[in-house]
Design goal:
The complex is a heterodimer. Chain A has a single domain, classed as ABC transporter involved in vitamin B12 uptake, BtuC (Orthogonal Bundle). Chain A has 13 helices and 4 strands. The relative contact order of chain A is 0.20. The model of chain A has no long low-confidence stretch (mean pLDDT about 85). The two termini of chain B are about 10 Å apart. The chains are: A mainly alpha, B mainly alpha. Chains A and B meet through helix 3, helix 4, helix 10 and helix 13 of A and helix 2, helix 8, helix 14 and helix 16 of B.
């Protein structure tokens, strides 16, 4: 029984970490007033670039050095793709949903075309040797040890670092305050000397970096190849941002909840309780999505959405 | 100054001309980028492959089989495009089209396979009506969530897409007589449920599946255009789309607009799904965890046409034409995914197509002044 509990905890982390990183990524952009519907595409871009890097470095660098660098590469790819969305949204005042959607449709197709052109096949495979069996000392801590410090990945810890950085940025730094001001009332922010466009570019660049990183952090623990899919996690992250009310700590808890439901869908076949229920696989697959709708019904009344979210900034409007 | 302008001048300075020019510019940019990618990834075959992309839709000269294939491909694209464009007019971005499509597809197949004994040679009609009803119901549920519970339309659409997809997989698995156990797909649709060819096989040959449904599509686009252009309902829907606050102030029910828009859009998408799968004989539905691509292609179809239902007929046929050309590119060892790259680039430029419109009108104004 206790082994199932630990197994479930480890599996849940594999869903939780990328979901939280990507939702936090979305939050950076949306708090500055730019809807980031392109998270799915950014994850795919990061996963593709990271997988290509891992593939070419697998004989050169030791496992977790390569993985750490690949996460940076994935983040940079995320920034590059995000700039398409940012340019349309910030500089041209285009429809943010439309350019976000365009990125989501472009990247899977483009990565398939590129993978075929470079490798001759559709999948980008790499040797998956990044699992950390056990971290000494820490893994001996009761409960926490087996879940967090055994059978784990370096990206798990990076996920928590991203969370802490995000909390500090939004609570303690001048940049976080400016980002907030730009998303709530850009005209007022501009009148105080804050550059709206520059702040939004910075916020969306951070968003692109973390979303790309989250894309690779999703595929590495779950597969040993990139196959133009992150299983809709980017879309789910969009929902987590809204459910998390654009606040880091709430996003953390929202991600925990979603990861819990996703994990049940992934591992219910080894848990006696769920086997006894005898439900269809698809019931478990539907649960996270139905639950999102139900939760949003109860929470969307008192939404703390950034006031200027989705509105192109027009300096001439007072 | 006050002399009446010529009809040609009036057209060239109209909003529609601006949209048309913007659409043509975005399409040209999309195609050029596609060509550029081809030149980079496969320089030796880039030009013949690109020619195939642009002309493959015509098929062999004199046989017209390509055109027939285009008309078959166009059916789901036009219907999904209409499902996106119709609600966009009332201010709702209908991301849930893929879910509505798959619901309609399943209902159509279910009725087509299991009710052939009841409806006889009209099974196809009953089946596509069932598809429209199922898609409409799914769209309506989404409309209720948006209108009464104030849910974000985008999130709601995504959730309804995946829920619909998995719900269909679950029902298919448990449908005796429809599902082929162990294979993960449905039975083949019986001939009575295949939509009649309406003489199109004489025109395009028996090898293509062009059928009556393309005419149904065109009729429904005209119907949608009529509602939006000539009825009070359509006027109200557009008022809500332009400014929901002002419309509410004028006594127009925003909720009703959203509900009607989503109900009809869902029915369009569902019908598209049913007509696509019942259009050709021998089709099956295989259980999948991936959303149908037609739902998202509908977004590009609607955006290229600026959501104008009559324009959607043309843009739907255009995207279908590229898809057929893309299939033809496989003979060069290239992936048809290049077509998705091109259409998504077009969508990207649609996000700010008003920039092209603005430039066009500025140019037009300068030309008029210099006259």
């Amino acid at each position: 029984m206790i082994n199932i509990f630990y197994f479930f905890g480890q599996q849940m982390l594999l869903c939780f970490v990328p979901l939280m990183i990507v939702a936090l990524a979305g939050m950076y952009s949306e708090r500055s007033g730019i809807i980031n519907f392109s998270l799915e595409g950014l994850m795919l871009a990061g996963a593709f670039a990271g997988a290509m890097f891992l593939r070419s470095m697998q004989t050169v660098l030791p496992g977790n050095v390569a993985y750490s660098l690949a996460l940076v590469v994935a983040g940079l790819a995320g920034i590059a793709v995000m700039m398409l969305h940012s340019y349309s949204s910030v500089s041209l005042g285009g429809s943010q949903i439309v350019s976000g959607m365009a990125v989501n449709l472009l990247i899977p197709a483009l990565t398939i075309v590129l993978a075929r052109a470079i490798l001759g096949v559709l999948q980008v495979d790499y040797a998956n040797r990044f699992l950390i069996a056990e971290i000494p000392v820490l893994s001996a801590v009761p409960i926490i040890g087996p879940i967090f410090f055994r059978q784990t990945y370096i990206s798990t810890f990076i996920g928590f670092i991203v969370f802490i950085i995000t909390v500090v940025v939004f609570k303690k730094t001048r940049f976080g305050m400016r980002l907030h001001a730009v998303g709530e009332h850009p005209q007022a922010a501009e009148s105080l000397g804050i550059k709206v466009a520059a702040t939004r570019y910075r916020a969306t660049a951070i968003s692109g970096f973390f979303a790309g990183l989250g894309g690779l952090a999703f595929i590495v623990p779950n597969a040993s190849e990139y196959a133009a899919s992150v299983a809709g996690y980017g879309y789910l992250a969009c929902a987590v941002v809204i459910f998390g009310q654009w606040q880091p700590i709430r996003i953390l808890w929202a991600s925990v909840l979603f990861a819990f439901m996703k994990t049940i869908a992934n591992v219910y076949t080894v848990i006696p309780f769920f086997i006894a229920l005898g439900w269809s696989t698809y019931v478990y697959k539907m649960i996270p999505y139905i639950a999102t709708v139900i939760i949003l019904i109860f929470t969307s009344k008192k939404s703390s959405q950034p006031k200027a979210l989705g509105e192109p900034y027009d300096r001439s409007v007072k | 100054m006050d002399k009446p302008e010529k009809a040609s001048v009036r057209f060239l300075t109209s909003e529609s001309a601006g949209s048309l020019i913007a659409a043509v510019i975005t399409i040209i940019i999309g195609l050029l980028l596609g060509l550029l990618i081809l030149l980079i990834i496969a320089p030796t075959i880039a030009l013949p492959a690109f020619r195939m992309l642009l002309t493959g839709g015509f098929g062999k000269i004199g046989v017209l089989s390509g055109i027939g294939r285009v008309l078959y491909y166009a059916v789901p694209l036009i219907m999904c495009g209409l499902a996106v464009g119709f609600t966009l007019k009332t201010g709702v971005f209908n991301i849930g089209v893929a879910g509505q499509y798959v619901m309609g597809l399943f209902a159509g197949l279910y009725v087509g396979i299991s009710c052939a004994g009841i409806f006889g040679s009209f099974t196809w009609l009953a089946a596509i009506i069932a598809g429209a009803a199922a898609g409409g119901a799914w769209g309506f549920i989404q409309g209720v969530l948006q209108a009464f519970f104030n849910l974000n339309a985008i999130i709601c659409g995504i959730m309804m897409n995946y829920t619909g997809l998995f719900l269909v997989s679950m029902i298919v698995e448990n449908s005796k007589g429809v599902y082929v156990r162990g294979r993960g797909w449905t039975e083949i649709v019986p001939d009575a449920a295949v939509i009649p060819r309406a003489g199109l096989n004489n025109l395009f040959g028996n090898s293509t599946a062009a059928n009556l449904s393309i005419f149904i599509c065109i009729a429904l686009c005209i119907f949608a255009w009529f509602i939006l252009k000539k009825t009070t309902l359509g006027y109200r829907m557009k008022a809500v789309g332009l400014n929901a606050g002002a419309a509410r102030y004028a006594g127009i029910s925003v909720r009703k607009s959203i509900l009607v828009g989503m109900l009809l859009a869902g029915a369009f998408a569902g019908l598209g799904g049913a007509m696509n799968h019942l259009g050709a004989s021998g089709t099956r539905y295989a259980i999948t965890d991936a959303l149908p691509s037609q739902g998202f292609a509908g977004i590009s179809v609607a955006l290229i046409a600026s959501s104008n239902p009559l324009g959607i007929i043309i843009s739907g046929i255009f995207i279908a034409f590229l898809e057929v050309g893309g299939v033809g590119m496989q003979s060069f060892g290239l992936d048809p995914d290049l077509v998705d790259v091109i259409t998504s680039v077009i969508i990207y430029f649609c996000a700010f197509s008003f920039v092209f419109k603005y430039l066009y009108f500025k140019l037009a104004a300068r030309l008029r002044r210099s006259e």
